[in-house]
Design brief:
Elements lengths: L15 H10 L1 H4 L4 H12 L9 E5 L5 H9 L4 E6 L2 H7 L7 E4 L12 E7 L8 H11 E12 L5 H10 L11 H9 L4 E14 L2 H11 L15 H11 L8 E13 L3
Helix pairs in contact: 1-5, 7-10
Catalytic activity: malonyl-[ACP] + S-adenosyl-L-methionine = malonyl-[ACP] methyl ester + S-adenosyl-L-homocysteine
GO molecular function, one term: S-adenosylmethionine-dependent methyltransferase activity
Keywords: Biotin biosynthesis, Methyltransferase, S-adenosyl-L-methionine, Transferase
Length: 270
């Protein structure tokens, strides 16, 4: 069993090339296990104002294009852009359509002109960005006045069951660190964008065993890229220790994996 988790943030940052390569490799398997991603993205879509009709929208961190196609359906006839740092994801999404253009790019340095989008939609992508202040700055720059930046991300407390179980086994870095929710509040408040809504909501998935969870993380491309992480395969004794430690969290539905999801809707002032 390999050591798998989600990518790190401040305190130990991954190389963006590692993030892109990991998600590119997972493009073919991603949608088969992306229950959380679909649920979160749907909730984010439902947080958009009912009467909001963007003439030009951007799916930022589009992945396989699942929500690119959902946005195209919701805003039929309007221009859509899909951007991702992982070429493998774009290659998977492009033939499925939904966007006018599929673009390889970085959320921290968007290859778009000023004031050209009415909506930037980003579901479970910006947690991979080390410089979230730059992400917000780019959103402010690219949005038209009155435009909306809607994003879902992850914060501290995500996969705490896996983190605490590994801590009992060897004390090494196996589960990545995420920003505090308070940090999201601070950065959004200082961005120049008006906060329409900003909240933290837990999502809990259940698994029959630890292997099912780690298999899903691998299929998602959500590997542990923390500096200082253990390398290579994880020894049998440590895996047995992990399994035993994780059992303390077992519930009637199975072994829980908690994701602390941040939902935000921000508006560029007129």
């Amino acid at each position: 069993m390999t050591d798998l988790s989600l990518t790190a943030l401040p305190g130990g940052l991954p190389d963006k090339r590692q993030v892109a390569a990991s998600f590119s490799r997972a493009a073919a398997s991603y949608d088969s296990v992306a229950e959380l991603q679909r649920d979160v993205g749907t909730q984010l879509l439902n947080r958009l104002p009912v009467d909001f009709l963007p003439l030009r929208w951007l799916d930022l961190g589009c992945g396989t294009g699942y929500f690119t196609r959902a946005l195209a359906e919701r805003f039929a006839g309007n221009e859509g852009l899909a951007l991702d740092i992982a070429e493998g994801m774009l290659n998977h999404a492009r033939p499925l359509g939904g966007a006018t253009h599929f673009i390889a790019g970085d959320a921290e340095r968007l290859p778009l002109q000023d004031s050209t989008c009415d909506l930037i939609f980003s579901s479970l992508a910006v947690q991979w960005c080390a410089d979230f202040e730059s992400v917000l700055g780019e959103a402010f720059r690219v949005l038209k006045p009155g435009g909306i930046f809607a994003f879902a991300s992850l914060c501290v407390g995500t996969l705490y069951e896996l983190r605490d179980s590994w801590r009992q086994v060897d004390g090494l870095v196996h589960v990545n660190r995420f920003r505090e929710f308070a940090r999201y509040e601070q950065l959004c408040a200082a961005s120049g964008l008006r906060t329409v809504s900003l909240e933290n909501q837990p999502h809990v998935l259940h698994y029959p065993d630890v292997r099912s969870l780690t298999h899903e993380l691998k299929a998602l491309g959500a590997h542990n890229l923390n500096p200082g992480r253990p390398g290579g395969l994880t020894g049998r004794a440590r895996i047995l220790g992990l399994v035993e430690a994780y059992e303390q969290f077992r519930q009637q539905q199975g072994l829980p994996a908690t994701y602390q999801v941040v939902y935000a809707v921000l508006e560029k002032p007129l």
